[in-house]
Amino acid sequence: MVMDDVYYMKQALVEADKASERGEVPVGAIIVSQGRIIARAHNLTETLTDVTAHAEMQAITSAANVLGGKYLNDCTLYVTVEPCVMCAGAIAWAQFARLVFGTRDEKRGYQRYAPQALHPKTEVVNGILSDECAAKIKAFFQSKR
CA-to-CA distance for 105 and 64, rounded, in angstroms? Predict the structure, then answer.
């Protein structure tokens, strides 16, 4: 595990808190290029009434704008929860160098439905701050019941 992964996942958790404050499912994402955070995002599906407004999608759009291109092949995406199939497809199209996620999504994660969805060169690291990431999701859904 790269120690920087812990630092950047903590930044993604800050984004997850922003989502939670808005009544959104608390998922946060950070994109890093050459050691610099170039995009920060969180879920906005309720705010924008848009099912595609996942944290990853918001971050990808922002990073592409910052870099001036659609390929993010020198970037790492940090996200608190395993991406869904839609987001995994976008991660593949953007050709990320790395995907780092906190906790698995047993119900809707891409690994359940489309384990080959990512670009073959994308390195995947999971379990970074898994307990903290999972706790945010669990607390959110418990508060809704």
Answer: 26
User: What is the value of pTM for the model shown?
Assistant: 0.95
Return d(Cα 142, Cα 145) in angstroms, integer: 5
Over the stretch 13-60, which tens digit does the pLDDT of each residue have?
999 999 999 999 999 999 999 999 999 999 999 999 999 999 999 999
Q: Which residue in this structure is represented by tokens 């929860």?
A: 81
The helix/strand/coil state of 28 is: strand
φ/ψ region of 127 (left if φ > 0, alpha if ψ in -120 to 50, else beta) reads left
CA distances (Å), origin 77, targets 68, 116, 139: 17, 17, 24
Q: Is 82 assigned a catalytic role?
A: no
Catalytic residue among 56, 82, 106, 123: 56
Asked if residue 47 lies in contact with residue 77, where contact means CB atoms within 8 angstroms, the answer is no
What is the full DSSP assignment across 72-137?
-TTEEEEEEE--BHHHHHHHHHHT-SEEEEEE--TTTBHHHH-TT-S-TT-EEEE-TTHHHHHHHH
